[in-house]
């Protein structure tokens, strides 16, 4: 199934449940004006970094720019480096509080990704790092360009799939066994020119 952003904006709330897939989407979590203001502030105030990864011993630049924040003392390894959080910026703390109160779940860190255009992307993966524990709740907030967010079942034979064109201001909650049985990606969409910023709030367990 594939849902356009216009289709997704028709409801206040969506539940996508399939074999071990458990998603909740709030298409109107922030309105257009708030989303634009958050996009601009995040784009201009976050210290965006170009991440490097090693594949077969060769260094590559990740096709997007990233940042990370969290509650003081929380540690997270990315880009081969252990990062220790020093606290939230006030804007992100406000966003986190709104998400926590509406989803009744606590988060202690956030990974920020900025896709500078349609060539920036994120490959197939699951958010299944050990430190997130079993069945993590991940809250994914989008500002800016509409990009396709694909889900695919991990099974080899006839994997099911789901494609959501996430609107600006939407909040997608991934929970239950989703990360164990499904992968997700942000594919390249060469025709997209505008930038997109995504924040994934997570709870890192010591
Ligand atoms: O940009 C997105 O919507 C996806 C981000 C993501 O999957 C991640 O940070 O793990
Ligand atoms: Fe992810």
General description of the model:
The chain is α+β, with helices and mostly antiparallel strands and 206 residues long. The chain has helices at residues 5-8, 32-45, 90-103, 178-181; strands at residues 2-3, 14-18, 21-26, 49-55, 58-70, 75-78, 81-84, 109-115, 122-125, 138-144, 147-153, 161-166, 171-174, 182-186, 196-202. It has a single domain (14-202), classed as Sandwich (Jelly Rolls), CATH 2.60.120. It has an 8-stranded antiparallel beta sheet. The protein has a 5-stranded mixed beta sheet with strand order 1-12-11-14-9. It has a two-stranded antiparallel sheet with strand order 6-7. Strand 2 and strand 3 (21-26) form a beta hairpin. The site of fe (ii) ion (FE2) has 3 residues, from loops.
Outline the secondary-structure elements.
Blueprint: E1 2-3, H1 5-8, E2 14-18, E3 21-26, H2 32-45, E4 49-55, E5 58-70, E6 75-78, E7 81-84, H3 90-103, E8 109-115, E9 122-125, E10 138-144, E11 147-153, E12 161-166, E13 171-174, H4 178-181, E14 182-186, E15 196-202
Parallel strand pairs: 1-12
Antiparallel strand pairs: 2-3, 3-13, 4-5, 5-8, 6-7, 8-15, 9-14, 10-13, 10-15, 11-12, 11-14
The structure holds 2-oxoglutaric acid (AKG) and fe (ii) ion (FE2).
Fe (ii) ion is lined by residues 125, 127, 184.
């Amino acid at each position: 199934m594939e849902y356009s952003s216009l289709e997704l904006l028709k409801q206040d709330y969506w539940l996508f449940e399939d074999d071990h897939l458990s998603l909740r989407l709030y298409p109107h979590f922030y309105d257009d004006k708030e989303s634009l203001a958050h996009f601009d502030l995040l784009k201009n105030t976050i210290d965006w970094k170009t991440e490097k990864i090693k594949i077969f011993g060769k260094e590559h630049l990740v096709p997007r720019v990233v940042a990370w924040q969290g509650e003081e003392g929380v540690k997270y390894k990315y880009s081969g480096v252990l990062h220790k959080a020093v606290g939230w910026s006030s804007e992100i703390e406000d966003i986190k509080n709104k998400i926590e109160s509406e989803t009744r779940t606590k988060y202690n860190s956030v990974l920020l990704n900025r896709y500078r255009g349609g060539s920036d992307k994120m490959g197939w993966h699951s958010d299944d790092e050990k430190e997130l524990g079993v069945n993590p709740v991940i809250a994914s907030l989008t500002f800016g360009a509409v990009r396709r967010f694909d889900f695919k079942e991990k099974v080899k034979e006839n994997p099911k799939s789901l494609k959501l064109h996430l609107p600006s201001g939407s909040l997608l909650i991934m929970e239950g066994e989703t990360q164990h049985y499904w992968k997700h990606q942000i594919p390249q969409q060469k025709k997209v020119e505008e930038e997109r910023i995504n924040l994934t709030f997570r709870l890192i367990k010591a």
